[in-house]
C-alpha cells in the first residue's frame, strides 16, 4: 500500500465490515482496510469461531451480536455504532470475505466528496472487462434482478446487490434496515427512494476467490429476496 | 345425541373458556372474544343440526354443508397462517433490535497503535 496510516484524509471515514464465521480471512481483510482507514468496525454476527478476536487484533472495533441475525442486521448494527462516533462523516460497507478491493472504496469516497451525491453503490457491470470475470449464471441472475426491480430501474442502477457502498451522514442517520437476512440490498434501494437520497454507481471489481464463492449466497435465495421485498411494505416499522 | 356431537361441543366450550380466561390488551381482545362467542353458538348449532348447514350451503351454490365448512376452514387456515407469519416477522425485528442493543453495549475498542 502506498498510503500510510499517518494519512489523515480518511479520519472521518468508518468502514463497516459484517462478518459471520470468517476467522480464516477476516484478519487479512481488516489489516488491508486498516492500512488505509483508521476507523474500522467489524460486526461479529454471532460467529461460532473467533472472528471477533481476530478482527480486534487486526485493529477493528468489534461489536458482537449475541446470536446470529443475518447480514442486513449486522450492517445496521455497524452503521449505528459508527454514526454515534465523534467526527464520523463518511461510511462504507465492505464484505468480510475479501471480495472487495480497498482502492475501489477510495475511489468511491472521492466521488462522494467530489459530486453531489449521498450514496455511491459499487457495480460490477459497468466495465466490460469486469463483466467477463463474473461467472455467467450469477451475471445473468443479478442482471435480471436489477432489470426486474422497479426501484433499481428508477434509480438507473445495474447492480443493486453489490456489497460495496459508500455514503454520508444523512444516509447513515436515516438508515433503518428491518430485513435481517440477505434482502437488505433491496431494502437499501427502497430506503434510497423513500428518503430521496441521491444515488450513483461506481464500477468496482469483485474478486471471485474460491473462498468468496463458497461463502456466497446460493442463487435460489433470490426467491426469498423477492418475497421479502413484497412483504416489506406490509410490515409495521 | 351422537358421541361425536358431545365431543365437539365439549371441545368448543373448552376453547371458549380458555380464550375468555386469557388476558391480553383488553380493548383489542374484546372484539375477538365477542366474535368467538358467536362462533361457539354457531358451532354448537351446526353440531346439533348438521343438515341446516346444507341449507346455507345451497343458498351459496354449494352442494353439501360439509363442503361449505371445508371451504371456510381453508380460508380461515390461510388467514391464520399469514397473520402468524407477519407476527413472527415483527417479533424477529424486535429480537434483532434487542440483540443490537446488547452488541452496542459490549463493543470492544482496539488498542491504538
Throw out a few tags for this protein:
heterodimer, A: 237 residues, alpha/beta, Spore Coat Polysaccharide Biosynthesis Protein SpsA, Chain A, 11 helices, globular, B: 113 residues
Description:
The complex is a heterodimer of chains A (237) and B (113). Chain A is of the alpha/beta class and 237 residues long. Chain A contains 11 helices and 7 strands. In chain A, strands 3-2-1-4-6-5-7 form a 7-stranded mixed sheet, with helices on both faces. Chain B is 82% helix and 0% strand. Chain B is an all-alpha fold and 113 residues long. Chain B has one domain (3-105). The interface between A and B is medium-sized, with 25 and 18 residues.
Task: Indicate the topology.
The complex is a heterodimer of chains A (237) and B (113).
Chain A (H helix, E strand, L loop, with lengths): L12 E7 L3 H12 L4 E6 L6 H7 L3 E4 L6 H13 L6 E4 L8 H13 L4 E5 L4 H4 L4 H13 L1 H6 L9 E4 H6 L9 H11 L4 E5 L6 H6 L5 H12 L5
Chain B lengths: L2 H19 L4 H23 L1 H10 L5 H41 L8
Average predicted confidence as pLDDT of chain A: 83
Side by side, the strands of the main sheet of chain A go: 3-2-1-4-6-5-7
Count of the domains of chain B = 1
Give the N-terminus to C-terminus distance of chain B in angstroms: 85 Å
CATH class of chain A: Alpha Beta
The count of DSSP E runs of length 2 or more, i.e. the number of strands of chain B, is 0
Tally of helical runs of chain B:
4
CATH superfamily of chain A: Spore Coat Polysaccharide Biosynthesis Protein SpsA, Chain A
Radius of gyration of chain A (CA) equals 17 Å
Q: Low-confidence spans of chain B: pLDDT under 50, at least 5 residues? A: none
- As for the CATH topology of chain A, it is Spore Coat Polysaccharide Biosynthesis Protein SpsA, Chain A
In helices, the fraction of residues of chain A equals: 40-55%
Largest sheet of chain B: none
Strand content of chain B: under 5%
Amino acid at each position: 500500500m502506498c498510503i500510510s496510516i499517518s494519512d489523515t484524509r480518511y479520519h472521518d471515514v468508518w468502514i463497516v465490515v459484517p462478518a459471520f464465521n470468517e476467522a480464516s480471512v477476516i484478519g487479512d481483510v481488516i489489516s488491508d482496510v486498516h492500512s488505509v482507514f483508521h476507523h474500522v468496525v467489524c460486526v461479529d454476527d454471532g460467529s461460532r469461531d473467533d472472528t471477533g478476536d481476530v478482527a480486534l487484533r487486526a485493529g477493528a472495533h468489534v461489536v458482537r451480536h449475541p446470536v446470529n441475525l443475518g447480514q442486513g442486521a449486522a450492517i445496521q448494527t455497524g452503521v449505528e455504532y459508527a454514526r454515534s462516533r465523534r467526527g464520523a462523516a463518511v461510511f462504507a460497507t465492505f464484505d468480510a470475505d475479501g471480495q472487495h478491493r480497498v482502492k475501489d472504496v477510495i475511489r468511491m469516497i472521492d466521488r462522494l466528496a467530489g459530486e453531489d451525491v449521498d450514496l455511491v453503490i459499487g457495480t460490477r457491470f459497468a466495465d466490460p472487462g469486469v463483466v467477463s470475470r463474473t461467472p455467467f449464471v450469477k451475471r445473468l441472475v443479478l442482471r435480471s434482478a436489477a432489470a426486474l426491480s422497479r426501484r433499481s430501474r428508477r434509480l438507473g442502477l445495474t447492480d443493486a446487490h453489490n456489497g460495496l457502498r459508500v455514503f454520508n451522514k444523512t444516509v447513515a442517520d436515516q438508515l433503518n434496515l428491518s430485513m435481517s437476512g440477505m434482502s437488505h440490498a433491496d431494502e437499501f434501494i427502497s430506503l434510497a427512494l423513500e428518503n430521496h437520497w441521491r444515488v450513483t454507481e461506481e464500477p468496482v471489481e469483485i474478486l471471485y476467490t474460491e473462498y468468496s464463492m463458497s461463502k456466497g449466497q446460493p442463487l435460489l435465495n433470490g426467491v426469498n429476496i423477492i418475497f421479502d421485498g413484497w412483504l416489506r411494505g406490509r410490515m409495521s416499522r | 345425541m351422537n358421541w361425536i356431537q358431545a365431543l365437539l361441543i365439549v371441545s368448543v366450550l373448552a376453547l371458549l373458556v380458555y380464550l375468555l380466561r386469557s388476558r391480553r390488551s383488553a380493548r383489542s381482545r374484546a372484539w375477538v372474544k365477542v366474535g368467538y362467542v358467536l362462533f361457539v353458538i354457531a358451532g354448537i348449532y351446526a353440531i346439533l343440526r348438521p343438515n341446516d348447514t346444507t341449507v346455507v350451503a345451497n343458498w351459496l351454490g354449494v352442494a353439501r354443508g360439509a363442503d361449505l365448512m371445508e371451504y371456510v376452514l381453508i380460508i380461515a387456515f390461510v388467514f391464520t397462517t399469514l397473520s402468524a407469519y407477519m407476527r413472527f416477522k415483527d417479533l424477529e425485528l424486535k429480537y434483532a433490535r434487542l440483540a443490537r442493543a446488547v452488541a452496542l453495549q459490549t463493543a470492544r475498542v482496539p488498542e491504538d497503535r
